[in-house]
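User: Assemble these into one structure.

Assistant: Restating your components, then the assembled model:
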Amino acid sequence: MLEIEIDGKQLAVEDGSTVMDAATQAGVYIPHFCYHKKLSIAASCRMCLVQVEKAPKPLPACATPVTAGMKVWTRSEAAIKAQKGVMEFLLINHPLDCPICDQGGECQLQDIAVGYGGVTSRYQEEKRVVFNKNLGPLVSTDMTRCINCTRCVRFTTEIAGEMELGQAFRGEHAEIMPFIEKTVDSELSGNIIDLCPVGALTSKPFRFSARTWEMSRRRAVSPHDSLGANLIVQTKHDVVMRVLPYENEELNECWLSDKDRFSYEGLNSDERLTTPQIKQGGEWKAVDWQTALEFVANGLAGVARDHGGEAIGALASPHATVEELFLLQKLTRGLGSGNVDFRLRQSDFRADAARAGAPWLGMKVAEVGELNRLLVIGSFLRKDNPLLAQRVRQAARRGLHVSVVGPTADDWLLPVRQRALVAPSAMVDSLGQIVVALAAEKGAEVDALLRDRLPAQAGDEARAIAASLASGRKVAVWLSNLAVQDRRAAELQQLANEIARLCGGRAGVIGEAANSVGGYLAAALPSAGGLDARGMLEQARKAYVVLGAEPDLDFANPALTRAALGTAQLVVALSAFDAESLREVADVMLPVAPFAETSGTFVNCEGRAQSFVAVARPQGDTRPAWKVLRVLGNLLALPGFDYQDSEAVRDEALAGDIATRLDNRVGEIAPFAVVPATCERVTDVPIHFADPLVRRAPALARSRDAAAPVARASAATLAALGVEAGARVRLAQEGGRVDLAIVADDGVAAGCVRVPAAHPATAGLGAMSGAISVERI
Amino acid sequence: MILAGCDGDRSWRLQDYLARGGYAALKKIVAEKIPQETIIAELKTSVLRGRGGAGFPTGLKWSFMPRSFPGDKYLACNSDEGEPGTFKDRDILRYNPHSVIEGMAIAAYAMGAARGYNYIHGEIFEIYQRFEEALEEARAAQLIGQNILGSDFSFELFAHHGYGAYICGEETALLESIEGKKGQPRFKPPFPASYGLYGKPTTINNTETFASVPFIMNMGGEGFLNLGKPNNGGMKLFSVSGHVNRPGNYEVPMGTPFAELLEMAGGMRGGRKLKAVIPGGSSAPVVPAGIMMDCTMDYDSISKAGSMLGSGAVIVMDETTCMVKALERLSYFYFEESCGQCTPCREGTGWLYRVVHRIEHGLGRPDDLDLLNSVTANIMGRTICALGDAASMPVQSFVKHFGDEFMYHIENKKCLVPPEVQYAGSQIYVSPSC
Ligand SMILES: Cc1cc2nc3c(=O)[nH]c(=O)nc-3n(C[C@H](O)[C@H](O)[C@H](O)COP(=O)(O)O)c2cc1C
Ligand code: SF4
Ligand code: SF4
Ligand code: FES
């Protein structure tokens, strides 16, 4: 610790701190532009100049290391003079077009100019004009306003991992621009809007629609991935206008993924379902709530009476709230059915009977930075969970070694030290080899449950991964979406657990959705003897309740889902959107409130329950789903549906200590034989199609991540299949076929074809993993 | 010294250099395993000061390198020479490239550096090629490379050419440029001696600085110091340009009277009267004739006259010079060459240029001189690198010493020096309107 003095205040700061750090600690504000606590130091804007004892010149606080006994004055005459001098320079070429600038009212330049700027300008020469750049559908530019602080450049390079922006040209001609003919395509791109201290980078979807002071702001939690990013939702006249990050150092820090930031546009989509509707004689009719609810209650009661409760199945989205999931399972069980599930894209449920608790990340999100070895299994990490990927990226800069097992080798913009690029069906074997190698390396015994199922020996890749993990101090082994959705997810979990155990690390599951942990805690799971998400569709039920999901896009097997729902006697859909594939199969659609229009709770991947309130009034006749389910419970005269508010539901659902309910351990599971296939399907769920809300956000739909799906296979696989790169092919699986273009991508494991799910173009297909045939057309 | 005996047409060849006594110092050091400390002590005694502009004592700079640091260490030679008026380094490389190679090899030995780069200005490509040839010769003769002269001392030296940006001569911008990045100065600290090329300890010296090293080793630090005057050791190359009869490089002992240097350069062209001199490259403050004629050419004397010896580029201006126009040209240079990184320089250099340009074009305003002084004061000392200061000092000194000429321009919307007089001096047509 070093003793120093800032503006007469004595304080002790850590060695290696800068004057800016010390000032922050002392609660002293130093004006700044280029400095940002999460970015490297540029020391270029010069706004933070301060006076330091014995220094002949003012020094930039952001870059000046503190020394013992240093005396700093941030508001002395010399300091203020320097700061005002810099302010004048920043303003001479600035257009000062605040009245037409979207940043007005929330502009650092404007704010600091109030304190340090002159009343009139001494600059009477011509001002600089900089042409705007096309950065894509999300970020709008007014580059004449740019003050060249390079925050955006450093963000893309350091946080997003790819230098998508740079400062070209010299001197006064310096300009921030993307590479020629390129846009900014990072899934984190929206953060440069927040970082830009002026109105050079603003939100394309939001711009010109409201002033910051006209909007009310409320906290919320992202309904998308499992990180649980904290949001500030801004509304005007009950319409959500914009979403910004709410800083939470333990989760999203000060960042948001583009999905978190721009998905709100989907709330105002034309496809919103705003009145209850009933299908009569093949025609959809808008009805009042009373009619609709009675229809549903009578219908469900009728099926239960005629066919038994187990003829009813309930399928809910993992993006639904704890309260919704809890009431849905309660309702279903009340009707005498144990058929409830929220894991709609999963296909292996053998672990259910053997689970010790709810699968979770196995650690706090904030602890990712401390890891020094990590094995990620079956993942599209950057797209599955952009902010978790960002944390891994930062940790990798500090020495974290990342190894990967899985069928794809997408660029995560972070160094992957070892990679086993294997087909989904080979992942179990691959992890088994790692277990073998690790046990040898550590001289340890393998768990008895696994011993007989392991491969005889480990290959080079497995040994390299094992060696990397064995040398770690803080190790984690994560199963990501593709692994969890795999046909042998149970074995993968067992093996991941064993790998973690052998190297003294922690096993974890990243989780597909905002409430992937919460669904377990809310007991939205089949009862013993009940049917899971797959069973309910394979053994068609007479009636289904579908909450927040679309048959074509949110299930592991769209063909199977359509078939099962299509033949049911009654399908009740609770949905915020009037989706085509729901219209086809449902008999009644109840408009329920999406994100932002309902209170609720999500439990994120680290087991953190985060509750939120509604920030906008539900549109039209929409009602919060938890209220709808409560009324249904009442109409059906089921006990225990007399909740006053959603908090009461939450308290019941999450009673007790959540931490004690999280556990990734799995006991003995029945073996599963994989039928070998000539060609295997690898399925990703593209980030901007993953759930009903995000797929209706128009700006995101124009992003690179929302490009129309193509099939991908390695050049060698293409050759073996006898198709050319770029050709159109017919892809066929049990249950359906589609035509798609196929491209060469050597990042796909041999013998595999990668086909995205969650898109109408591929909804005609079957299961997300397993055999697929490819034929040229 | 450096250019002595380089009159023939093969002076750049290894054979010629050896004949002039070249590589004797390196051979001796390697053969006798002279301790690193001894070499650095000798340099300190010589009071060799950096020839790149800042005049920092070279021995001291070398002593900052963590010699015993086990990892990679680098050397960089700054041959970027972009400062208007300066054209000495290219002549050293053109006529005596081996002196630089030998100097760098000795430096590498003294600082334990295994790799060096000579960063050569992009617009003198034939000199870059000549240096590459010299490197080939030296490599073939085992004077650089692995196990130099059969010893266990190894030093790899490479030539690297820039693309002509002045800012790449600033030492940390030069390092960025070698690393393949945009040439922009780094904020210091950390200094290159601890965090330099690729983040490793690095020493950067000017071409002439390195070229002086073998001579110092041969004649001893004391001998070199005695060539010049106390605190201003040795010989120095002066690039004399402007209104003299014989512009060119003159290598003279430190402390040579300016009048003598002017004489060597053939005196004033057309016998005209001296008006002003910029004694150390375009970044140095201008000195009016009267003061200049009393100066000797060394760091201390020029600094007493309110300017800097800088890189030793002596720009001589006679009475036909319009000082407003001269400053306009200089300000344009800095405006164009600012890297654009830091606010005061990026925005300020354009402002300075536009105001001077306005004055020159008859659009000056009465308070423009105050404005210029105030803008320069707001730039100086507040930037990342010294380019901000370099852009400001000419403006301040021109306004200080030739304020009346500027005022005349502002009030009369034309030059104090009539266009026809300017034409007589420069043979460049000057429109009567300015
Ligand atoms: C804008 C700017 C340009 C510079 N250009 C050169 C140059 O062309 N050559 C040079 O040797 N030094 C140049 N310098 C000085 C170098 O930064 C550095 O001080 C010098 O190379 C150190 O070598 P020395 O100690 O041998 O002089 C420049 C400095 C600045 C600020
Ligand atoms: S665009 Fe904004 S963030 Fe980027 S350099 Fe300019 S002012 Fe800074
Ligand atoms: S002073 Fe000028 S040249 Fe130097 S770093 Fe700043 S902007 Fe670049
Ligand atoms: S904030 Fe310190 S220089 Fe920009």
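Chain B has a mean pLDDT of 95.
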